[in-house]
Amino acid sequence: VGRDPTVERDFREFVGNRSGALQRTAYLLTGDWSTAEDLVRTTLMKTYLAWRRAGGLAAAEVYARKVMVNAAASRWRRHRRGERPAWQLLDTVSVEGAEWLLERDAIWAVIRSLPAGQRAVVVLRCYENLTEAQTAALLGVSPGTVKRQASRAMHALRQRLSGPSVPLLQAVQR
Amino acid sequence: MSELDEMIRESLRAQVAMAPPLTAPADRAISAARRIRQRHAITSLWAGVIVLALAGGAVAVMRDGWLGHHPVTAATQSPTEALGPSPSPTAQPSTAATTARFDRLVLPDPTDLVTADGRTIPLTDLDGPVGQAHRVVDGWLITTPTSLWLVSADATKHKLLQPLDGLAVAPDRVHLAWRASDRLYIGHLNGTTLTPDQSTPAPARGAPIAYTGSAVVLGYSLTGGGIDHHDVWVPARGNYSPSWDKTQDVVAVYQPAPDGTLYGVANIPAAGKHPCLAVFDPLNDLRVTQTACGPQITIDPTGLVSPDGQWLAAWSAVGTVSPPDGAKVSPPGYGTVLVRLDTVFTNPVVSQTFTAGTVAGWLNANTLLIQPNGGPLVLAHVGDSTLTPISGLPAKVRVIP
After folding, report:
1. Which DSSP string corresponds to A112-157?
2. ipTM field
3. Cβ–Cβ contact A1 with B under 8 A
4. Which of A12, A41, A57, A107 to mutate to test the interface with B (most CBs of B within 10 A)?
């Protein structure tokens, strides 16, 4: 990339427009704002390094998302042994108080506990509103794999949210 | 959309409703990118012979696994007879061969192949700058950006493949793995003929970087700064099936040892921030089967296994530098280390340290070449800290493994 002013200008424009969205997706992929910031920083650095090769401003968003999803999966694999499974946290969820908040957080806790691939599929399909084909392209897998990952994620959500603490979800499962 | 889908969506939106501000993300990314580029530039400089930019823009990839037992006259150990091909009428004697006898490329342009027995074979009539070079039974395999050539022992050249998008040579020097357009292949050499044995559709990115004889390790660079993604194709199981997502902890894969053992570098979460020397199982998605971690094992992702599979020579942090006789030294803290592979996984220590430069290649099971910073190549020996400069070689020489 060197110190090409055009590249730097386009890159700054991209960051200005999209870094917030990338940060939010990064958080959903990692579950931690500090880690999300690290992930965004790494993603932007790699995107800048590959700016011309990746296709410049027009292709930056797709490239950055690919980098971020891959980096998040890599980080998840490095640190998974130290993570506390979210389903254990569900044991402490109470039905008292704001039921929806509890359910919302319970859903989030389960999503955080999913393997990186399943979590990425859930985030990209449900939060980013990507199609199966778009999600497959971003993750570098087949649409069939996306379908399987989504199915497993939904199964896990239904299984783990079937306890007495989340009655609304029990109704949803039917 | 199901009610569960909608609840998931609402939950995710709620989680990111209060995102903290990012601090100067563009400035920080650009600064970090520049630091990375500077580091790569320095690394490339010091890697010297290992990764060498050829005239014409091709990137030369150093391969390990030296097969021959070629003598080097500057060595203090007794030389043995060279295994190079017999001289041909067209070959010319090389003055460099009087002081150092091993198969090598003289770079950059014109690129010559100088054989262990002292002949110079010009490679200027190939269809592009030279990339990889490997010693095989009947000569040398040479790659250009688009083709694979066999330079026979009598100096005749045979184009074996075109197009070619990546090549790995098995430890037996007979079986090859390569990518051509959108397919991966394995095949074998028989004289001057390369016969494909099996093929499979290739992934969008990635090319063979190592071949154990039973598994083809694929690699590609996402950032352009070196291979950062790895995958495996096991031909005996049929077509290639992607598993990039299962190899995220793999940092680097070295060329297979003579027995096919696959060593490399892996991130081991329990070991802290420094990656560890590792043994990978190529038949199980490069699963780590053994590790050597610790303060003395700070192996850089470049390394060469000795021809007998007993040693790994790698560029690494080495602590205090004391200049060896006759050779310039590396930047403080870096040099070449030797790791004994049959004990390092139970006793993770560096066996020997050379404070000069990067390893350029093994000449035999006990002797290796080291490329100091800007100075002449030096010989180093297992069990002996003395470095012996080699005279009479041009500045840019690449050992052919």
Report:
1. HHS-HHHHHHHIIIIIS---HHHHHHHHTS-HHHHHHHHHHHHHHH
2. 0.78
3. yes
4. A107
